Amino acid sequence: MDLGDWRSRISELDNQILNLLNQRAEAALRIGDLKRRQDAPSYVPEREAAILNRLVAANRGPLSAATLQAIWREILSGCRALEGPVTVAYLAPPATFTHQAARERFGEAAAYHPSRSIAEIFEDVERGRAQLGVVPVENSIEGAVNVTLDRLLESDLTICGELTLEIGQYLLSRATELREVKRVLSHPQGLAQCRGWLAANLPDVPVEETNSTAGAAELAAGDATLAAIASEMAGQLYGVPVLRARIEDNRQNTTRFLVIGRQQPAPSGRDKTSILFAMPNQPGALYRILEPFARIGLNLTKIESRPTKRERWDFVMFVDFEGHREIPIVAGALSEIAERTRYLKILGSYPAA
Hints:
Number of domains: 4
Radius of gyration: 23 Å
CATH topology of the largest domain: D-Maltodextrin-Binding Protein, domain 2
Number of helices: 12
Largest sheet: 6 strands, mixed
């Protein structure tokens, strides 16, 4: 076959793909009608995770798994919107890393609701201004996002999903040379993740914290003496050129985000559960609480302590582990742990990233 033959073949395949996509969309419309009659949510995270896991496992190439997932996220996003609207709260303004993570999870067809702070994301979901929220919970370099942990302690929302996002930090400025920069603005996490680069390249330039990386980019758009540490997406949105690319100190810089809402996903086959608990003030209390995990063979993926801010030196432990609360062996472990703690809260079981 020559070039013209292959192009004709691609045109035929494009028409077949278009026809199949519209057949899938028609099925989504019918499912949406049934869900509305049953008052069921249009977003079913365990179902979407199972679809992606199945397709990635069945993929034989030459498309990579990452490419396949990106394509299918948009197919799922478009069909989900046909079933019913999904509104997702994120940390404003547009082009924050939280906004980027939300778009990667829910695609272009979702409706996005800007919230002024992480605490407000929780409040917007709690009050029904958004069905779901996306919040950062930990960074591979800087550790836990404490405001998220504190709100999980207080809120009645559940975790219904997670995702990870590789964080690339860019120095954005209308300045043409580094010597023209008089102040560097960013979110505290952005500044911390570029501390070494700033010390080496702008040692005498003061830094200033902002509520978000995108907010810093927005300010830098109006003043050529300012530079913002933010995403490349923020630079494109606010019209601020990239002065230096990828200035993060560690190229393994990754942030984990949680999806919060009121849903309790069913098992997907590859899940995590998040809990928090308070320990009795006794020798060996933590060992006894965690012992069922080791005995049963449940893998812990995170353990973090936070003060409750209710009494002096009163702490709770946040724990993530592999497994779903509805699986009998996990349910049994949680029952044992509940008897050994002063307080146990199950934050959610959800498809693993």
